[in-house]
Write a structure and sequence with these properties.
The chain has 449 residues and is mostly helical. The chain is built from 18 helices and no strands.
């Protein structure tokens, strides 16, 4: 393990580049998936977008367990507590399976009421129901690997994580047209291709954690005496991510309802395309975040605060540059980006006009993401939660209620930008204060030595 000794600039890229490549391949898989779905019909694309709140809520539990356990594993390894780190890894697998089974049972029992809450039109409902049922049921065997994948990066194995994500993403890109068009399964084919790819990732990650002797920790069936204590600490670290996803699901549902109130199903398809473009950028930022989190978590545990500060500063800088770059591309070539997803001229026109408003605060979203995730990994979950509540509720909901009746769909886009902008400025204030605190803590440690 070189997380505590290697030069920070080199280490950040060693961890981030594999994570970025892995996340990019995942983003490409999502984009290609939606391109194929868009070729079925605009209603099929709308079905993927309008059922997104269900998937976001499910992802909340995945991140609650995955982010929390991986953060605690990094800290325990920094403290030299390998056995406890292995206990946490086993708990991650055990409880993500419990959560997924419970979620799926509840979803199937309340399927019709849930779809009713989503305000799905009669044209979209057959596509939505067929797609989301397969995705949720298949997640029981498909998603555990994504949860444990966080732990691969926390032990410095970002390269392994990258390889399996790329392999399974390419697999999905190949399977999508096969199931959709060759086997003529339509949107169900897209869902089945996704589940098969996810399951492949799960099998590989679990196998690697069991068999790979070059891993600093391994997955073992074991009885853990301090199970509830470790689970509680892990869930505490993962709670901000959980809040973010739950709030994001609620806001997504709220936005969809307002899009239908002031627009049409076409506007749902439009926001789905915008979300796909944003996800491509966001996955790169998350790659930087994951590299930074592994470094910060380990060095926070070993009390090397100067290294934490240096890694955080670099992650903030790189995420800002990336944000500015995508913002410029969106300003200059919106129609080119949108036309990748659809050949519907009306949809291209609507999305190209709206995306400039929807993502106009993009330059500070990168630093905001780095800041929020950093506070989570060093056990300052209150600050991370504050940023989550600001971005996913406190600002955007009132803004939509005020602006949408006056400006229509454009008011919804501007509300999203206001939420990103104000929360971003608050995060900058918090992170500047945090950098000063880290500098003082590092000085004290150095002086005592």
């Amino acid at each position: 393990m070189n997380l505590g000794t290697e030069r920070i600039s080199k280490l950040l890229w060693q961890l981030s580049i594999p994570a970025i490549l892995g996340m990019l391949s995942s983003a490409i898989f999502n984009i290609v998936d939606r391109i194929y779905v868009g070729r079925i019909s605009s209603y099929a694309l709308t079905a993927v977008g309008i059922t997104m709140p269900v998937q976001i809520i499910q992802m909340a539990f995945i991140l609650l367990v995955g982010v929390g356990t991986s953060a605690l594993i990094s800290i325990r390894l920094g403290e030299g507590k390998k056995d406890e780190a292995e206990d946490i890894l086993f708990l991650a697998l055990k409880y993500i399976i419990i959560f997924l089974i419970s979620f799926t049972i509840l979803f199937i029992i309340f399927l019709d009421p849930i779809l009713s809450v989503l305000s799905i039109s009669d044209n979209v409902l057959p596509y939505a129901k067929e797609y989301i049922v397969i995705i949720i049921v298949g997640s029981i065997i498909g998603i555990p690997g994504y949860c444990l994948n966080n732990s691969l990066r926390s032990i410095g194995k970002a390269g392994v994580s990258m390889k399996i994500i790329i392999i399974t993403s390419v697999m999905n890109i190949i399977l999508d047209p096969l199931f959709i068009f060759v086997f003529k399964m339509g949107i169900a084919g897209a869902a089945i291709a996704t589940v098969i790819s996810q399951t492949t990732l799960t099998v590989y990650v679990i196998y690697a954690f069991i068999k790979r002797r070059d891993f600093v920790i391994n997955l073992k069936l074991r009885k853990i005496s301090s199970e509830l204590s470790l689970l509680g600490k892990s869930l505490k670290l993962g709670m901000p991510s959980f809040y973010i996803q739950i709030l994001a699901a609620a806001v997504n549902l709220f936005i969809n309802r307002n899009l239908l109130k002031y627009g049409t199903d076409l506007d749902i398809a439009s926001i789905t395309i915008m979300a796909s473009i944003y996800s491509f950028y966001h996955m790169i930022v998350i790659g930087i975040v994951q590299g930074n989190n592994s470094i910060c978590g380990y060095n926070w545990g070993s009390k090397q605060y100067d290294r934490v500060r240096k890694s955080l500063e670099l992650a903030l800088f790189y995420s800002f540059l990336l944000s500015v770059l995508l913002f410029i591309i969106i300003l200059l070539f919106p129609q080119l980006l949108v036309s990748i997803f659809t050949d519907d001229k009306a949809l291209i026109e609507i999305t190209s006009a709206g995306i400039r408003f929807h993502l106009c605060m993009l330059p500070i979203v990168g630093p905001l993401t780095v800041s929020s995730q950093y506070f989570q990994v060093v056990d300052k979950t209150k600050l991370s939660s504050i940023l989550a509540f600001l971005r996913y509720g406190i600002i955007i909901v009132p803004a939509i209620l005020i602006l949408a009746p006056r400006l229509g769909i454009r008011g919804i886009y501007i509300s999203n930008a206001l939420s990103d902008g104000i929360t971003g400025l608050v995060s900058i204030i918090y992170i500047i204060l945090e950098l000063n605190i880290l500098k003082r803590m590092g000085s004290v440690i150095t002086y005592n030595k």
